[in-house]
Amino acid sequence: MARTAVVLRAISLALLLTCISHRPLLAQESMGLRITALTSAERDSLAASARASGDMRMIYACVPAGLVVFATQDGTVSRQALRDQVASTLAAIIAPQRIEPEEITLHAAEAACEIVRGQ
C-alpha cells in the first residue's frame, strides 16, 4: 500500500513538472491566398519577407496552383494584424491585380494543390 502511494506521488510530481515546463499551446491564426502566375522566386521572396517580419511565417506554398498560406508565429497576433502584415508583404512583391481577394484555408490550399499537381 505504501509503495502504491509513493508511485502515485511520483507520477503526480512528474505530471506537475511537465505542465509547468511547457508553454501553453497558443492559437495560431492563418490565412491563405491565391496569386495568379506565382513564380518560385516570388514564393521565396514572400517566405523571406514573412520570416523577417518576426510575427508571421509562410506555412504552405504551391507554385503550380498559385497558393500561399501564412500563419502567425504565436497566438498574440490578431487575425486583422495578420491580414495587414500579409497585405504589406504582398504589396512589396506581387501586383495587386494578381491577388484574388478570397481567403482560403490551409486544408483547401492543400486540396487545390493536389488537384493541380494531379493534372
Largest sheet: 3 strands, antiparallel
Helix-residue proportion: 40-55%
**Radius of gyration, CA atoms, in whole angstroms:** 21 Å
Task: Give the strand order of the largest sheet, numbering strands 1, 2, ... along the chain.
Answer: 1-3-2
Beta strand count: 3
Would you list the SSEs in sequence order as H and E? HEHEEHH
Total domain count: 1
Rounded to the nearest angstrom, the distance between the terminal CA atoms is: 66 Å
Mean pLDDT: 82
| Number of helices, counting only DSSP H or I runs of 4 residues or more | 4
The percentage of residues in β strands lies in: 15-25%
Keywords:
15% strand, globular, 119 residues, alpha+beta, three-stranded antiparallel beta sheet, 3 strands
Overview of the structural elements:
The structure is a single chain. The chain is of the alpha+beta class and 119 residues long. It has one domain. Helices cover 50% and strands 15% of the residues. The protein contains four helices and three strands; from the N terminus they run H-E-H-E-E-H-H. It has a three-stranded antiparallel sheet with strand order 1-3-2, with helices on both faces. Strand 2 (56-62) and strand 3 (67-72) form a beta hairpin. Helix 2 crosses helix 3. The termini are far apart. Mean pLDDT is 82; it is low at 10-26.
Brief overview:
The protein is an alpha+beta fold and 119 residues long. The protein has four helices and three strands, in the order αβαββαα.
